Amino acid sequence: MSREFTHFDESGRARMVNVGEKKSTSRTAIARGAIYMNEETFTKIKNNEMSKGDVLGVAQVAGITGAKKAWDIIPMCHPLFLSGINISFKFCENNCKIEIESTVSIDSKTGVEMEALTAVSTAALTIYDMCKAVDKSMQIGEIRLVKKTGGLSGDVINE
């Protein structure tokens, strides 16, 4: 696998990589992140008691939308026709944390890592937005690529 920066031309100027000659393959990316909050906020989300409504339901839809729009907000991302997007949440009682996981899949000439990472980020930001009136101390973090499959560089696991 080449270690050169492919998003720069010979002059050092930014460019979008041409994937036209690449072969389409099945690709998947899994990303995770977390949002920490105070106990009151955590309990209200878990019991669906936030005044703005179903926080995780809205965050799930926002995460899906974020994945579909990654190309629109990240300059060098290609517009993609995604095959599948799943967003899931896990409540961690011991530290008032909600873990967010996205799985994005496609059959394409380019990967979906940025789409999976954008999905997690968007879901976390939506939780923050819907709960900020109750808790301004929330922290978003730990956003990372956990796994990717397919493509020229092969499978990567970052557990």
Write the layout of secondary structure elements.
Elements: E1 25-36, H1 39-46, H2 55-73, E2 84-92, E3 97-108, H3 113-131, E4 139-149, E5 156-157
Antiparallel strand pairs: 1-3, 1-4, 2-3, 4-5
Give a structural overview:
The protein is α+β, with helices and mostly antiparallel strands and 159 residues long. The chain has one domain (25-146): Molybdopterin cofactor biosynthesis C (MoaC) domain (Alpha-Beta Plaits, 2-Layer Sandwich). It is 29% helix and 29% strand. The protein is built from three helices and five strands, in the order βααββαββ. The chain has helices at 39-46, 55-73, 113-131, and strands at 25-36, 84-92, 97-108, 139-149, 156-157. It has a five-stranded antiparallel sheet with strand order 2-3-1-4-5, covered by helices on one side. The two termini are 21 Å apart. Catalyzes the conversion of (8S)-3',8-cyclo-7,8-dihydroguanosine 5'-triphosphate to cyclic pyranopterin monophosphate (cPMP). Keywords: Lyase, Molybdenum cofactor biosynthesis. Residues 16-151 form the Molybdopterin cofactor biosynthesis C (MoaC) domain.
List the defining traits of the structure above.
alpha+beta, lyase, 159 residues, Alpha-Beta Plaits, single chain, MoaC_bact/euk
